[in-house]
Amino acid sequence: MNFGFKHIPYWVALLMTSTMMACGGGQLPEAGTPDVDLYLKKCTACHSWPHPARHTKEEWDHYLALMEWHMEKKEIPFSAEEKQVIKGYLYRNAR
Ligand code: HEC
Q: How much is the pTM?
């Protein structure tokens, strides 16, 4: 007996999975903007994204310097421009 469940096109499953992943719980402020895209691209290589409201501006300064060092060690490129954009995003939404 075949109820047809096998006939859900694989791309429907794929679409659902990628939509869920792109939302990531949907808790990030400014989600969907280029700044957040960059933040997700650059800051999830080694761990999941920390929420911007988790730290104050001063703490973000400290962490960004630390992360720059981590990225250098792993040879992940992190340009001054990218750092500026991410810093601006974190500052706007800091604790
Ligand atoms: C090359 C790997 C790497 C990348 C890329 C990276 N981090 Fe990290 N991050 C780490 C490691 C390793 C730790 C653990 C703490 C430590 O030893 O410094 C950490 C810890 C943290 C912490 C402290 C713990 C916490 O969750 O509060 C914050 C905040 C953080 N990272 C933010 C960022 C941000 C923002 C970016 C993007 C600019 C980023 N990280 C990109 C490696 C990375």
A: 0.79
